[in-house]
């Protein structure tokens, strides 16, 4: 047997070096290089007439007409989970599920395994962190002990694959978690970059060979990234992130990568005493408890994947006593807030340089699309003027650096969701508005950010004027 070759592997990004150094040149992290042994096995020679070459011989694209166009799927019956996966688990696919500790990853997976087991499919739940008795206690709390789910507590990949090969191939295999797995091929401790990569590769080969859907649970780092080498995310077919806040009861399952479905799809769950329950109308959940009579709030009609989602954006603008005013953001991009503030001052004449600005997306939701620019600007102006926006109004639109309000995609779907929830008015970009079905809503189209400032100024006639810049400003005079 060949002697194992020693190398130094970065535990943050997986870069390999021949000797130790303090800083990783690939990810610029310090003290992350750990000495590990490489694989001890030798690869089989690639002979011209060998079986390995026959397995890898190419086929012509025109000769594959007999294959199914759509990959066969295995729906779980959990609508929100099936939405994120694209209609169910694709046979032979591998999904990497990441999330913070205690967010509910194991709860969601045991419910999915029980749902498939009730449908007559063989499902196997393998945990490297808990004993089988502990998994059964969780299932008992969820009233799932009667589900014929096979449980095991094991960390050796070779033993896991040997056990799975007994009997009929399972339809679903859950590995919780991939960081606890180890394989004999690699001489390093479990959880290292080399072990995670080798274990994931062995499980992926098993999934492709047997047609079983495999879910790998991954830990996350302090900055929210899945721990281990990034190459694992490239190896798997789908990457899902389970997000949420311990202060709120709802959880979001987000598809970051999906070879068999749409990306950025979102499923909404609510954590209850009986486990995770689906949220059929997430917009009503995020708008629950809203006080429409308070200034500084705006309802944003956003999109999460293919689903329209209405959320409340809260803003607080107060005079600052600090030399450098504060800018605090929760649930949105702080750099984009700085851009909106600069556009309001440059093209809207609104002075915010001496004010503290606090922005929050209600419910703990994280918004990443630029369509929220108009709602954020409206919430800021509402808080500054002390004039609340109409309670039955939704807003969406992108603001450019030149001060123009630009249209965003899926406007008709956004308006349809707003009309379904009882909203009667919408503020959106003027460009392209004539081609959108308004769904019976009274619309106000805006061409530039100055139009929004003028509209807010008209509403605040009975209150102190907004602090404007320019020669006509009372404060400047």
Walk me through what this model shows:
By secondary structure, this protein is an alpha/beta fold. It folds into 3 domains: about 5-35; about 70-280, Rossmann fold (3-Layer(aba) Sandwich), CATH 3.40.50; about 285-460, Ribosomal Protein S5, domain 2 (2-Layer Sandwich), CATH 3.30.230.10. The protein has 12 helices and 23 strands. The strands form 5 sheets. A 9-stranded mixed β-sheet has the order 8-7-9-10-6-11-12-13-14. A 7-stranded mixed β-sheet has the order 17-18-16-15-19-22-23. It has a 3-stranded antiparallel β-sheet with strand order 2-1-3, with no helix packed on it. Strand 7 (about 125), helix 4 (about 130-140) and strand 8 (about 150-155) form a beta-alpha-beta unit. Helix 10 packs parallel to helix 12 (about 450-460). The protein is globular, with a radius of gyration of 27 Å. It starts with 5 loop residues before the first strand and ends in an 18-residue tail after the last helix. Residues about 40-50 and about 465-475 have low confidence and may be disordered.
């Amino acid at each position: 047997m060949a002697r194992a070759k020693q190398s130094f592997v970065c535990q943050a990004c997986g870069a390999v070096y021949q000797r130790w150094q303090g800083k990783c040149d690939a990810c610029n992290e310090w003290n992350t290089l750990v000495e590990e042994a490489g694989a001890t096995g030798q690869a089989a020679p690639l002979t011209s007439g060998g079986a390995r070459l026959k397995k890898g011989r190419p086929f012509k694209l025109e000769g594959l007409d007999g294959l199914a166009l759509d990959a066969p799927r295995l729906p779980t019956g959990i609508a929100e989970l099936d939405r994120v996966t694209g209609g169910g688990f694709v046979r032979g696919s591998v999904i990497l599920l990441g999330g913070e500790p205690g967010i509910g990853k194991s709860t969601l997976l045991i419910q999915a395994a029980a749902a498939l087991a009730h449908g007559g499919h063989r499902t196997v739940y393998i945990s490297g962190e808990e004993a089988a008795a502990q998994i059964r206690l969780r299932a008992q709390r969820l009233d799932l002990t009667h589900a014929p789910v096979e449980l095991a507590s094991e960390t050796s990949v070779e033993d896991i694959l040997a056990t799975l090969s007994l009997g009929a191939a399972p339809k679903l295999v859950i590995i919780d978690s991939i960081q606890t797995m180890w394989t004999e091929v690699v001489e390093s401790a479990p959880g290292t970059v080399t072990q995670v990569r080798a274990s994931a590769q062995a499980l992926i080969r098993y999934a492709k060979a047997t047609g079983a859907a495999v879910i790998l649970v991954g830990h996350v780092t302090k900055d929210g990234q899945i721990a281990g080498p990034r190459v694992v995310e490239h190896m798997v077919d789908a990457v899902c992130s389970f997000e949420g806040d311990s202060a709120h009861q709802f959880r979001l399952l987000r598809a970051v990568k999906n070879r068999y479905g749409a990306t950025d799809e979102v499923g909404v769950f609510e954590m209850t005493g009986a486990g995770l329950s689906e949220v059929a109308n997430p917009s009503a959940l995020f708008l629950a408890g809203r006080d429409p009579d308070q200034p500084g709030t705006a309802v944003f009609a956003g999109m999460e994947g293919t689903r329209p989602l209405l959320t409340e954006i809260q803003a607080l603008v107060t005079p600052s006593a600090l030399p450098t005013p504060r800018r605090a953001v929760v649930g949105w991009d702080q750099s984009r807030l700085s851009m909106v503030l600069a556009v309001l001052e440059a093209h809207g004449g609104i002075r915010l340089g001496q004010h503290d600005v606090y922005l929050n997306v209600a419910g703990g939701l994280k918004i990443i699309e630029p369509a929220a620019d108009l709602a954020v600007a409206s919430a800021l102006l509402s808080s500054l003027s002390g004039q609340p926006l109409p309670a039955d109004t939704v807003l969406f639109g992108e603001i450019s650096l030149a001060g123009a309000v630009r249209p965003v995609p899926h406007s008709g779907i956004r308006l349809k969701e707003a009309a379904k929830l009882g909203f009667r008015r919408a503020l959106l970009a003027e460009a392209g508005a004539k081609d959108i079905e308004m769904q019976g809503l009274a619309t106000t189209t805006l061409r530039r950010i100055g139009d929004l400032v003028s509209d807010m100024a008209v509403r605040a006639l009975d209150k102190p004027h907004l602090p404007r810049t320019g020669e006509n400003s009372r404060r400047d005079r």
